[in-house]
Design goal:
7 helices; Hypothetical Protein Ychn, Chain: A; 3 domains; OB fold (Dihydrolipoamide Acetyltransferase, E2P); 5-stranded mixed β-barrel; alpha+beta
């Protein structure tokens, strides 16, 4: 399913009414796969270009072009936002004709069932499984997954391995991810966990074997932020979530939101205009500091 929302496009792979895999593409952020005409703006301390109103880093560098000179680039990773808001997008030099990025996913258009539950997992970072839970936290170095629960260590690690592989796919975790399992005694117990990860991790992925302290590192391609990354940029994340929830209303409405969320919406009047067309009535906004970030709602005006 592909859901064209206000402020973002969402895609989900659904099986038996469960979201197995999800992706988000934000408006105003150039996605990976886009090829653009650019201008070289700096060669030190890092090679930086400007294109489409954004700046991108070229990790591979560039030769034969002076500062201010034109070149063509392909975006390889969009700007991440969230806890890594300072990280600009990445690109490489290209000789191909400028073109937009490929679609976020191929699928039929429509509203994605189960999306609110998925957002709550991203918001809290907690995913429960039979016998325990995962706690997921983004850091500047990697996304960390802590496996905790009340089963015996061997069984907890096995269930946690399955749940972690599922979470990596469901929440679109890319780049390096560290999984902290309970410490296991014996090589055979660790190999059982390694086998589960080998069978259930989404491809492509590379991983280390579990070490003696129960730690495994997984590395996957990263062309966009995960849902965990997006949730870390709390005000913007909740503003887009509020727009989605409010789109089911009919007639004039008032959005009531935490002041930080309200500021995001005020900075995007076009989003409010599109919501007004969607609900068929005027949309106004009221900030309420007593509300939690995620507690925004629509009321009939």
């Amino acid at each position: 399913m592909v859901e064209d929302g206000i402020g973002e496009t969402r895609a989900a792979l659904i099986e038996n009414d469960e979201v197995l895999e999800a992706r988000v593409r934000r408006e105003g952020v150039t996605p990976a796969g886009t090829i653009l005409e650019a201008k070289l703006v700096a060669v030190a301390p890092r090679v930086t270009v400007e294109a489409g109103g954004e700046q991108f880093l070229l990790p591979r560098g560039v030769s034969g072009i002076s500062e201010g000179g034109p070149l063509r680039i392909e975006v390889t990773r969009e700007a991440l936002g969230g806890v890594e808001s300072w990280k600009r997008g990445l690109a490489r030099r290209s000789e191909e004709t400028p073109r937009p990025a490929p679609p976020l996913a191929d699928g039929k258009p429509g509203r994605i069932d189960g999306w609110d539950e998925l957002l709550e997992e991203a918001r809290s970072g907690i995913l429960r499984f039979d016998g325990g839970e995962l706690r997921i936290q983004p850091t500047a170095a990697m996304t960390m997954i802590d496996v905790d629960g009340w089963l015996v260590p061997d069984r907890l690690a096995q269930m946690g391995a399955w749940a972690a592989a599922r979470a990596i796919r469901r929440l679109d975790l890319g780049g390096p991810t560290g999984i902290d399992f309970p410490t296991l005694k014996g090589r055979d117990a660790r190999q059982q966990v390694d086998s589960i990860l080998a069978n259930y991790l989404p491809s492509p992925a590379e991983r280390t074997a579990m070490n003696g302290f129960g730690f495994v590192q997984v590395v996957r391609p990263r062309s966009r932020p995960s849902l965990i990354d997006l949730a870390a940029d709390c005000a913007s994340f909740e503003a887009r979530a509020l727009l989605r929830r409010s789109g089911a209303e009919i007639g004039a409405i008032r959005l009531v939101a935490h002041p930080a969320v309200a500021r995001v919406l005020e900075s995007h009047p076009d989003w409010l205009e599109r919501l007004a067309r969607q609900v068929g009535g005027n949309v106004t906004l009221r900030a309420d500091a007593a509300l939690a970030m995620s507690a925004g709602h629509a009321e009939h005006a």
